[in-house]
Every structure is written in structure tokens, then in C-alpha cells.
Write a structure and sequence with these properties.
single chain; alpha/beta; 8-stranded mixed β-sheet; 5 helices; globular
Length: about 160
């Protein structure tokens, strides 16, 4: 992965472009050290793990499903599948994630993908005035309000745990 002193990776440029195209602020921050987990990101950012928005790619009948979930909990895939009336939700392989997002596991952003992905937004994230999400690689994050994240991703709001 590229460090902050290197050129900006294409995956991060795609996120920056998606933010500005959607009319959102480009608040992408690139860190010297990797922040591939919610705990690592919260430590670097000085916020609670619950304010970190994990972008989790799952596979449903061969199609990607993006769940934007609080870093403080685990997604209950059986409950989500039942609420949506869909088949089994499986954790996607790293290759599947890269194919559908153009981003590696641990750096997936809510936006900046080659094609639109069905997206769910964890309603527990509403409790935080400012959220932080991955920005396309292991060294980048961006900040955003819940309402703005819901708008730019056209996510379905749902309790996921």
C-alpha cells in the first residue's frame, strides 16, 4: 500500500471523486500508518470505535451487498437476511470484494466503486454526530454525518445487529 508521502492510490482518488460528485465534502485524510480495523482507526482518530463505519461486503446469490455497520458490533447476517426477505448472506472473499469495489478488504469505502452496490446503513450509527469511514485503502479515512452518508450511498437504513 502507498504511504501518505507516495502518490495517492487510484482507489482513494475514486472515493474523493465520488464524494465531490455526490456534493459531499472531500474530508479524506491519509495517514502514515495503516488503519485497517475499526480499533486501529479509532485509536488514530481519537474517537470511539462505535463511530467508525465499517464497509463490509457480503455475497448474496452471487451479488455484492454492502453493509455499513458500526465498528462496535457484529452484523447479524441471519437477522438481516430475514428482514430483507433474501437468501443466505455470506462473507465475501477478498477477491470478490476487490472485483466489486476496486478496493481491498480493510480499506473498503462506502463509495467509489466501479458500479452501484446495494447498500444497507446500520441505524445505530445515527447516535454519532460524526462518522469515520474507510476511503479506499488501508491508510485513508473520511468523516461524514449519518444523514449525508445515507444520502450519498442511497442506503437502506436498517438495524443490522
Amino acid at each position: 500500500m502507498h504511504k501518505a508521502t507516495d502518490s495517492i492510490p487510484v482507489s482513494v482518488l475514486n472515493v474523493k471523486s465520488a464524494l465531490t460528485t455526490a456534493g459531499a465534502q472531500d474530508t479524506v485524510r491519509i495517514f502514515e500508518d495503516k488503519v485497517p480495523t475499526a480499533a486501529a482507526a479509532a485509536s488514530v482518530l481519537g474517537c470511539g470505535v462505535a463511530a467508525i463505519t465499517n464497509s463490509l461486503i457480503f455475497e448474496v446469490s452471487g451479488e455484492p451487498l454492502l453493509i455499513l455497520a458500526s465498528g462496535a458490533g457484529k452484523v447479524d447476517t441471519a437477522m438481516v437476511a430475514d428482514r430483507l426477505g433474501i437468501g443466505k448472506i455470506r462473507r465475501a472473499t477478498p477477491d470478490f470484494v476487490l472485483e466489486h469495489t476496486g478496493q481491498e478488504v480493510g480499506g473498503v469505502a462506502p463509495v467509489g466503486h466501479p458500479r452501484k452496490i446495494r447498500t444497507l446503513l446500520d441505524t445505530s450509527l445515527q447516535e454519532h454526530p460524526l462518522l469515520w469511514a474507510g476511503a479506499g485503502d488501508h491508510n485513508s479515512m473520511f468523516s461524514i454525518a449519518y444523514e449525508e452518508l445515507a444520502r450519498i450511498t442511497a442506503a437502506e437504513e436498517l438495524q443490522v445487529r
